[in-house]
Design goal:
The complex is a heterodimer of chains A (about 625) and B (about 190).
Chain A (H helix, E strand, L loop, with lengths): L7 H14 L38 E3 L5 E3 H5 L3 E7 L9 H15 L3 H6 E7 L7 H8 L10 E5 L4 H10 L5 E4 L5 E6 L4 E4 L5 E5 L6 H14 L4 H8 L41 H4 L15 H13 L62 H4 L1 H5 L9 H10 L3 H9 L6 H13 L7 H6 L9 H11 L22 E2 L3 H7 L5 E7 L2 E6 H7 L10 H4 L8 E2 L21 H9 L19 H11 L7 H9 L9
Parallel strand pairs in A: 3-4, 4-5
Antiparallel strand pairs in A: 1-2, 3-8, 6-7, 8-9, 10-13, 11-12
Chain B lengths: L2 H25 L4 E3 L14 E7 L6 H14 L8 E7 L7 H8 L7 E5 L1 H10 L5 E2 L9 E2 L4 E4 L5 E4 L6 H19 L1
Parallel strand pairs in B: 2-3, 3-4
Antiparallel strand pairs in B: 1-4, 2-7, 5-6, 7-8
The chains are: A alpha+beta (about 625), B alpha/beta (about 190).
Chain lengths: ~625, ~190
Amino acid sequence: MALKTSSFITSNLFLSLIISLQVGSAIAQRLAPGYGDTPFLLPDPGTYSLPSLGMAGDGMVLTDSGDTVSLHSALGENYALLSFMYASCADVNGCPLTAYVFYQLKRNMQVDSIIADNLKLVSLSFDPARDTPNVIQKYAANFDITNSKGSWDFLTSSSETELIPILEAYNQDVQRKRFIDGSNTEELIHILRVFLIDPQKRIRNIYSVPYLHSEIIYRDLLTLLKNGQISPEKSRGEMFLTQSTQLGPGDVREGYENKNFKSQSSPLKEKNKLTRPPKTTRILSNLGLPPYKLDKDLKLEQKIHLGRRLFLDRRLSLNNTISCAMCHIPEQGFTNNELATSVGIEGRTLDRNAPSLYNVGFSPKLFQDGREDSLSQQIWSPLLDKNEMGNPSVGYVLNRIRSIPDYPPLFFSTFGDSKISMETVGSALAAYQNSLNSGNSLFDRWYYGKESDTFESNQKKGFELFIGKAGCSNCHVLGKEYALFSDYKMRNTGVGYLRSVANQQKKQTVQIAPGVFAEVDHKIIQSVSDPVKPDLGLYAITQNPEDRWKFRTPSLRNISLTSPYMHDGSISTLKEVINFYNRGGIPNPLLDPLIQPLNLNQQEISNLTSFLDTLTGSNVRELVAEATNEVVGDVGI
Amino acid sequence: MTTNRRSEFLGKLAFICFLVMFSFTTAAEEKLVDHQGEQFSVDQLKGKVVLLIIGFTNCEDICPTEMARASIALSEMKEELRLVKPIFLTVDPERDSPEVIAKYLKNFHPSFTGISGDSETLAELVNHYGVLPKREKHHGDNQRIDHGFSTFILNTLGEIEVAVLPGLPPSHLSELLFKMTEENSKIRI
């Protein structure tokens, strides 16, 4: 199955020469994985799917014989790999990397007719002034007398006016480099992205520096050829996860209120059955999400791996009992489906619901009160909070990590320096949390991927209500290119107000077993738990009375997996949440003006719920599998 | 490119080249000098496949990379090497005297000939290959010159046959040079 890399040894020699010859340039650059071995274990072709990431842009281009054609027709009738090229690009991990990877594929076309017959390589120049049709003819001539099987076409454009709309359609921001004196050079700067496009002109994968590798592209091509057309049945079955307990150990709790409830819980061993190789899905699951931020970081996979271990490691708490993952439970939507508010070290009660970490890397504000803005700083809050992980100081945590023999070598291989510092611990944990991106939901495939046959009418009606009558999208906003379903603004819905002012009921209903309820006196409950404290939200940060009971507007992605809801976990189901907003929230003097009674009927509420169930990302199983398969310390070996 | 298109393209090029060869063999050759200080004439390239690298010795990124790639490619070649003429053509005659180039070339394959000379003549020559250097305004040792694309293979008539993209490995370059020398010997037979 592997591609031959016949020129590999010489190339490596060549590349080490490049590095040694860059005398005078400040730092010799680390080479991208595309020049060598694959950066991680690759899944077999056909064991994964490559959903559409949206339509490929079009525009008018020039061929090497000077003909004006549309880009789509130049891509041909089969699969195409499209790169944007700048021939005198000096960055070894830029255009030369693309040329190297394309060359490996071209070379394999000489011996493997599957690639030669099904894939066309296409390079479009960024530089119409220099790259005239006559010039790009000379690039194409590289393969006139050697490696002539299969095609690698070079394209240019008649002017920047023709080119710019194409670049925009592919999200290619191009700028000119400057000399020290400020004058423009002819050199261009852009972000490397290579697009795999199917015969229907849909983008099926986008490769950035750490993932641009001939073997990955080869396997993706075979996968697409195996899968043929997108099967809506298959994609739906794969995605229709509406409860996180379906993701692994734990129970599906539907019907728990009835006496005839039967447990479907699975043993802990089942965790290790979720073993689908997950890494490539990280980039494949981005439909509907903003571009992945860290894609130029060549050590990204190592950082994510190290961060994941730290995230799962109980030894990071004062008494070695609590890890981050015990409140942000991977198989429970990276929150805790069983508890309204979290429980910290030694069983201490916390005031708020653990926020889900899905897509947390896109959130400009962290914590329910928005007090932090960076994942690498944020981690110190739970690590040092006396009720959460209980560590007494930063130094204590760092020394603890240093004293665990697994970590110093991992930090060394990841950061090139065995120093374990606030910065490196923060960077690793942030990289892992940034990797929990989960888009490409049923909704994304319909709305952004233009797959018309995947969405049912009640889901469409629900979406119309979401952006229309129910007004949800006023706060849970959608963009043209992507949607995070939140503007992350701080708002008062009345939930916090209610908790501050309402009298506690004398008796509370508590469910003891399926179908068995008991009325328990509130005093008894109070005697075994902390009293419920008022939570003023943003006010605690700003001290501005106007900010009382304001909390961060959450993203709705994967919302079906992240119950219970609201900042204090006080509402258990999505239907109840919609009912809450249908009533107009809890009236209070500082209620957000956007919260008004909605007059939705039962059918509309049901449609809206059906729509919210379509926001579950396609890679949630893989993200859970990554976590459950991780070996931490001697556990899991 | 298909064979048809290629021959059509070669036809066009032959005509253009005739004009160009005419212009630079008359005006330019008097004022060019190789790295050993000898007068250099473009005539010396006739009948050889030329591996042409355009750059300057103070260049930190593209040029050494391209020179290194070319050196590896040349070292992979056997007796057909005698049909290949590797040339390093400077865009920076102010700093790149024959002595400076000679020292620079010691780092690379011994078959390289470095060419410097009168700046106007050189500018004319590199422009002919479609290379339009742009010089940073400040002067000094670290002055950069953005010269764009740099590695070409010329056929025995002095025409650009291939522009070799950065990133294509040295083995590709040696394979190309080998095939071109092979084609040329066929023509001679």
